Amino acid sequence: MRILLAAATAMACAAPLWAEGDHGLTIPSLTAEVTPEAGLEAWDRLHEVFTHPRCINCHVGEEAVPLWTTTHGANPGETRPHGMNIHGGDSRVGAEYIDCGTCHVTSTRPNTTPGAPPHAGLDWQLAPLEFQWTGKTPAEICAQVRDPERNGGRDGAGLIEHITHDAEVAGFITWGFTPGAGREPAPGSLQSHLDDTAAWVAAGMPCPGDPLPASAPTEASE
Amino acid sequence: MELSVNGTSYSLDVEEDMPLLWALRDELGITGPKYGCGIAQCGACTVHIDGQAVRSCQMPVGDIGNAEITTIEGLGTPEAMHAVQQAWVDHQVAQCGYCQSGQIMQAAAFLETHPEPSDEDIDRAMSSNLCRCGTYPRIRAAVKTAAAKLQGA
């Protein structure tokens, strides 16, 4: 997700510089007892975040054209290709034409100017092609996220570390929950996203359409 | 704070979140970079930071560190123009000229890494630099001429 999550409070308002190295999150347990049903509920919330414009708009496919979802104007909420003929290229950072960083500067300062290109503490970029989420069903995205071949080589603990590291550097996940400048944030908070990720991992990373696990025998059926 | 612009070091007493464009124009009197929109939608303020084109209206001076800033004033001189500047003259690109500082800086950075661009490459690289006079055909021609000159043709 252009990749997201957020220490909601710190970046909002007039916070000065992001405190690098301090993620400010409570790390949930990955070994808690979580039923598959509760895991799927957590997945639904994760999917809601992943497919929110703050996240999915840079998780595009081979066309490498990021998306814009308008905040102002005649049709707020409308999604369309990024203006200015922008193309991320095979590099996914626009190196072939115009670098994302030409306008999306790298800065941990809060986003405060309406209409200005957003920035984060990481160099702006499209998500890798194997992380494409546009045009995918929830089950397809779920299968991607739990597959180390398509999620950056991460197991459950790696997914948690991905989020906490992002918070430390004020990255894209963090930005997604505190985009500033009038943009609608992704649903929930960075902490709730972390909690949902942990619950989903603890439940065994269930995906929609997975075969249901065999039920434990009950006294009545014995 | 210290800023290095066009090879000269400057000492400034400004807020760290001041956009570089403000610092250049209002504090240092370097007025080649132009204010157009203030939100990176037009490209008139484009400068180079360590060789990369950057919209200076978006760049907080406190985030620049020791990087070298180059403005149109540092790209070439009237006596020794950069190939893009010379091509701008040869093609008489400018009409009102307000955008040309940003256009030239964008084109110069682009040609550093793309020595033989196609028309499509040029259009994609230059599309976020607006010209309200509509000189886009001359901009494309000048970039092609500059590319050829930089290649030694």
Automatic annotation (TrEMBL), chain A:
Domain of life of the native organism: Bacteria
Alphabetical UniProt keywords: Signal
UniProt signal peptide: 1-19
UniProt keyword Signal present: yes
InterPro entries: Multihaem_cyt_sf
Protein's recorded name: Cytochrome c domain-containing protein
Native source species: Harenicola maris
UniProtKB/TrEMBL annotation, chain B:
Keywords: 2Fe-2S, Iron, Iron-sulfur, Metal-binding, Oxidoreductase
Matching InterPro entries: 2Fe-2S-bd, 2Fe-2S-bd_dom_sf, 2Fe-2S_ferredoxin-like_sf, 2Fe-2S_ferredoxin-type, 2Fe2S_fd_BS, Beta-grasp_dom_sf, Diverse_Oxidoreductases
Signal peptide segment: none
One function term, GO molecular function aspect: oxidoreductase activity
Domain 2Fe-2S ferredoxin-type: start-end pairs: 1-75
Top-level taxon: Bacteria
CDD domains: fer2
Listed PANTHER family: BLR6218 PROTEIN (PTHR44379:SF2), OXIDOREDUCTASE WITH IRON-SULFUR SUBUNIT (PTHR44379)
Stated name of the protein: (2Fe-2S)-binding protein
Species whose genome carries this gene: Harenicola maris
